[in-house]
Design brief:
Shape: elongated
Bound molecules: zinc ion
CATH topology of the largest domain: Apoptosis, Tumor Necrosis Factor Receptor Associated Protein 2, Chain A
Catalytic activity: S-ubiquitinyl-[E2 ubiquitin-conjugating enzyme]-L-cysteine + [acceptor protein]-L-lysine = [E2 ubiquitin-conjugating enzyme]-L-cysteine + N(6)-ubiquitinyl-[acceptor protein]-L-lysine
Helix content: 25-40%
InterPro entries: 7-in-absentia-prot_TRAF-dom, E3_ubiquitin-ligase_SINA, Sina-like_RING, TRAF-like, Znf_RING, Znf_RING/FYVE/PHD, Znf_SIAH
Radius of gyration: 28 Å
Family: Belongs to the SINA (Seven in absentia) family.
Structural class: alpha+beta
CATH superfamily of the largest domain: Apoptosis, Tumor Necrosis Factor Receptor Associated Protein 2, Chain A
GO biological process, one term: ubiquitin-dependent protein catabolic process
Number of strands: 17
Organism: Colocasia esculenta (Wild taro)
């Protein structure tokens, strides 16, 4: 075997196999992975690390950087990793390549139990502190957690707080922005007899210092083609209840009105649509409103957002 004099940066694979148990035999690839997932090991640590946050770092899976929850596993050399990474690395320790058994790291699990940590959305305004194991549950429902982009039509991966999403809707999706709490929109559909799904451009309203999204779509309700308009509130469900809205659509001496409560954008656009929580107009009625024009459907929707709950 070649002797290793001076600086020895890489141990050839064959030497590892022959030499048996090397304490640290990280291949350069693994080292890359390790350093990428642990930037602090490269830069020499963040400034001002308290003892709690260094324990927190111990509880961070070195592979995926998520917080580890029981069962926490370790290799025979003591390297820890989370349960889902254990499956992903095919039962070999990513740090030392030793085969992973089913060795739990009970000490670390116990340490976790004794910890109290701030919500991960601390930077976004949540000041709550939780025992380690209830932290995750809280974070799934924390009112400061980022919202998903409310734009419908395709799954947009953007998340953020409300001001971020309003800017994103304006600049990224080029939605119609509207100041004020009343509106009067005309939706046009050529070939109304086509039954395909259609989504019109989202309108975002700024009123009462809040933001609301008005959706308008065509789809099949069972076998019946319908048009649906509904409003979503850019904020929490509990705050959405403080508002109400009305929609009116008509023409040809007929009129349909809807009074409802805006739904929080925490509820996906599809969920609201599928719950029929809005103004639904069947195509036949829509054609009456459009004065029987069969080439082009024109629906005038007027509405108002109110800062008072419906009684
Ligand atoms: Zn992991
Ligand atoms: Zn290991
Ligand atoms: Zn929180
Ligand atoms: Zn988006």
């Amino acid at each position: 075997m070649a002797s290793c004099s001076g600086v020895c940066e890489e141990v050839p694979e064959a030497d590892i196999a022959e030499g048996g148990d090397y304490e640290v035999s990280i291949s350069s690839n693994d080292l890359d992975l390790f350093q990428r997932s642990n930037p602090s090991t490269v830069t020499g640590g963040k400034a001002g690390i308290s003892s709690t946050s260094s324990v927190h770092e111990l509880l961070e899976c070195p592979v995926c950087t998520n917080s580890m929850y029981p069962p926490i596993y370790q290799c025979p050399n003591g390297h820890t990793l989370c349960a889902s990474c254990k499956l992903r690395v095919h039962y070999h320790c990513p740090s030392c390549r030793h085969e992973l058994g089913n060795i739990r790291c009970l000490a670390l699990e116990k340490v976790a139990e004794s910890l109290e940590l701030p919500c991960r959305y601390n930077d976004l305004g949540c000041s709550e502190i939780f025992p380690y194991y209830t932290k995750l549950k809280h974070e799934q429902l924390c009112r400061f957690r980022p919202y998903n982009c409310p734009y419908a039509g395709f799954e947009c991966p953007v998340t953020g707080d409300i001001p971020t999403l309003v800017a994103h809707l304006k600049n990224g999706h080029k939605v119609d922005m509207h100041e004020g709490c009343t509106f009067n929109h005309r939706y046009v559909k050529s070939n109304p007899y086509d039954v395909e799904n259609a989504t019109w451009m989202l309108t975002v309203f700024n009123c009462f210092g809040q933001y609301f999204c008005l959706h308008f779509e065509a789809f099949l309700l069972g076998t019946a083609p319908v048009y649906m308009a509904f409003l979503r509130y850019m904020g929490e469900e509990s705050d959405a209840k403080n508002y109400s809205y009305s929609l009116e659509v008509g023409g040809g001496s007929r009129k349909l009105t809807w009074q409802g409560v805006p739904r929080s954008i925490r509820d996906g656009h599809r969920k609201v649509r599928d719950s029929h929580d809005g103004l639904i107009v069947t195509r036949n009625i829509a054609l009456f409103f459009s004065s029987g024009n069969r080439q082009e459907l024109k629906l005038r929707v007027t509405g108002r957002i109110c800062k008072e709950p419906l009684n």
